[in-house]
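Re: export button greyed out
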Amino acid sequence: MSRFRLEIRVIPRPGLLDPEGKAIQHALHSLEYEQVREVRVGKLLYLDVEAASSEEARGGAEAMCHRLLANPVTEDFEIEVHEAREETVRV
Amino acid sequence: MRVAIVTFPGSNCDYDLYKCVQLVGGAPAFRWHRDVELGDVEVVMLPGGFSYGDYLRAGAIATMSPIMEAVKAFAGSGGPVVGICNGFQMLCESGLLPGALLRNRSLLFASRDVLLRVENTSSTFTQKYESGQILRMPIAHAEGNYHADEETLNRLEGEGRVLFRYTNPEGEAVDDANPNGSARSIAGILNESGNVMGMMPHPERAVEPILGSVDGLGLFTALLSQFSPLGTV
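Workaround output, generated via the alternate export path:
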């Protein structure tokens, strides 16, 4: 078994009203960042998992997203799998 | 009417529901989220509050509680289930009701009285109301913005599964009267088989004159009328 670090991004589906994103967009506009066309606010989750392979780690994460981490009605998700680095012992 | 009221960590309307069931002459009993059985009850109620601090999404963590398997089985066998506020969020999260409850359009926690128009008076839960009747009761939520895709919304409307809509005093579902941005001003819905209902407003907080409204009583008396009052057969 190896350790993997999963980065899971849960994002409100495009076109869905995202009042928090809207509020941030307005705030950016009031700072004169007029170039901002849209802001959407999601969640970033880091999971430290054990799995036999990165495919297995990803498969598990997909199941977790379907069952709990993302709402299938309103949110999409993206998963990145990273090999966890060997911990270096500092002296 | 024997009613199980499920308490989750962070529930805060469980005692209101308990009192309310007693008030109409029913027999309430608390169940804990870790329980695995509902016991011999005729109705299940999921109360309002902030289960698990609304972490992840309001109602999402609560749906993983052991008791929810029993609630799903109870609903599956046709037992009446009522979810109010956080309870409604749980029912959507668990898939017992369609759609989802998003952050209020205003981004603010909305705590005030609203007016609701009764849209369907043939359901188990609304048969004591008159069609088009305007009810006053409080809301207290930050995630009450009902969302579903167009197809689901059309289906809900077509099958008479929208129970309540936010309206103005004239009974018009105008945008100004919509406190949270809910699609089509929807405040409460019914599942396909008609035995599971969820709503964001709090009928249990509108059951005595001292609370400012008794308009919520009808929901509880409607349920009571289908069972013997104290649940003895």
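Chain A has a mean pLDDT of 91. The button fix ships in the next patch.
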